[in-house]
Amino acid sequence: MTSHRPRILLVDDEPDLLAELTSLLERSGFRVLTAHHGEEALRHIAEERPDLVVLDVLMPRLDGREVLRRLRQAGDWTPVILLTRVGTPAERAFSLQEGADDYLNKPFEPMELVARIQAVLRRARPGKPLWTARRLRCGELVLDRQARKAWHAGVGLALTPRAFALLEFLMLHAGEVFTREHLLDQVWGWSYPVGPRAVDIRIAEIRKALNDDPESPRYIETVVGHGYRLIGDVEGIP
Question: What pLDDT does 35 receive?
């Protein structure tokens, strides 16, 4: 029996870069599909169901952010890594809030892209399709990824967009411990000017909304000297 080789869809309007990355990813053990613009990418995603999409932002006809918006609005949570060239911190933050799983600034080292693809695929956890689920549930906590709303014991939670994105990330990686720096990189998504304290503020916001005592947590645990993790089992629900 042959092992599963993840299928990666590369979407970029630069033919030379597309050829270079295709060769690299195939040597790294992936199967590769390619598209030159957003409309072609959407057709491939619908028909081929790739395991992950590497999506350039600046493209003619249909740019990468619009492709991402259409996917998430349709409830498609195929992992997406955005490739940006000059995106501002605000633009990159907006992309992550809209549902991107990671981003990489051009120009980049090709092997860094391979590493990021491998990391995102590891998070996808075969057999536990959280990344494709519209909603996530942990105990009495339910998070709707498409509507960008959350409830606890049936009561809606008033969360800022950043706190919601942080809670979503922790639920997708339940049981894993993340440093403040890692959370800043993955959730805030840029070279942050405010420092790791920003994570503590949003964690406190989430805990207050959940009435979660940090001394005896039901959801978010502080791991002294390491960071934070979400405790409990998370399942994807329709």
Answer: 94
